[in-house]
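User:
I study polymers; will you set down one protein's sequence and backbone structure tokens?

Assistant:
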Amino acid sequence: MTRWRARIGLRTRLVLAFLLVAAVSAGTTATLTYRKARTAILEQAQDTAVSSFRDRVNDMGTPLPVEPKSLQEQLRLLARQGKPHPWVVFAEYGSVRVSSGTSPVSTVITPQLRRAALASPRSGSFQRVEKHGDPWLTVAVPTVFRAGKTVRPTGLVLYAVMPLTDEEANVRAMVTAARDGALPGLAVALVPALLAARSVLRPVRDLRKASQSMGRGRLDTRIQVKGSDELADLARTFNESAVALERSVGELQDAEARARRFASDVSHELRTPLAGMLAVTEVLDEDAARLAPDTAAAVRLISAETGKLAVLVEDLMEISRFDAGAAELNTDEVDVAQTIRKTLSSRHWTDPDEIVTDLPDGIRARLDPRRFDVVVANLVGNALRHGAAPVVIRLRLEPGTGAESRTGSGSGGEGARLVTEVADSGPGIRPEALPHIFDRFYKADSARTRSEGSGLGLAITLENVRLHGGTIRAANGPQGGAVFTVEIPLTGREVTE
């Protein structure tokens, strides 16, 4: 049933329901009308025949004992006077059987009618029967002696047998007319069904369009309310919900904008004093060896924490640029392998026991060297801090197979893809942490309250990859360890030598 309803639209279901109601109503009305009309037609014919036959029998004088030939002539006279159709009249008197027809007895007269006639000598009795599929009316009227108020049966019983084929034909004609009129009636009912479905579905369509508009971010969308029925109540509820949602989203956006502006302003204001602090800590670091041990330790701690603060401020400034949409991509054609080696060398990550590279030469692509450097540095630094050596860096070029879509960020385009993979040999990432690994300030290890990073490294990596139109995803390798894979579409940009 659910699949059937899913395949058939609401309009079709409404029209079918309307037509079903119309068909049931028409069928019920036709059935009741048929029964009433059939009863009226048959009862009219029955009442006319019974009354007429009873009157004729009462007016007829029949001498006793019965003379069959004389009685037959009387029966034929009665038969010619039959109403509303000619009768066939039968007479039974002891063993005497006489009729107005060719057969002295009738197979339509039942024993029940004979018993009923003897039980009601004054009024007689009647019965409708079917014989070989044809309807018949049988009337039994006993003849009586009347002496004042005394009424005694003579023993002679007269039976009138009348076919009801004409009445039955009229009834069948009514059924045929009702049946032939059903299809045009349903066709006529289709018009109001479509109009009713349209009036019901118009608010539903408006609600769907409004919902789609709100889904695209137009929170000021409203529905025009017409009427006071349930659909109008639904439209009013939608509008009230939209107003509340717009207000809530507006407040959240204002709060987020204030928070971003605050972070940006604070970061900007901190850069100047931090620059001075860094210069001082560098001088103190140079003289730390000549200081007392406790003083030297304090100086080095201040220097380290100042460095962390500087990194945090720079990262906050960078993430603020992404939030404000001010981040720009300045691309240049570079040798990707050499760019990665330069990143590793500038950060002194050259120990072969810690860093293993698989960087084929000759892959050139248009990238933003500074932002690609940040991507590689953040991933390798994250692997060294939270994973275990050796950290493996692989570079490859994959041919395109059409439009790509990846989880994590962005969406790859058609054509070839530059794939950079960074894998460590540590314990990997907990499954419950994988969906949040690129969230800002998220800590995969809840026991780790402090680290050398700002907590924004992977979030900044994500934004830089998105800026290139690429994707990044995190997973655990089959042999353990975390694996970060960056894919950047290079349609029409790569040159393989």
About this structure: The first strand starts at residue 88 and ends at 93. DSSP finds ten helices and 13 strands in the chain. The CA atoms of residues 88 and 161 lie 5 Å apart.
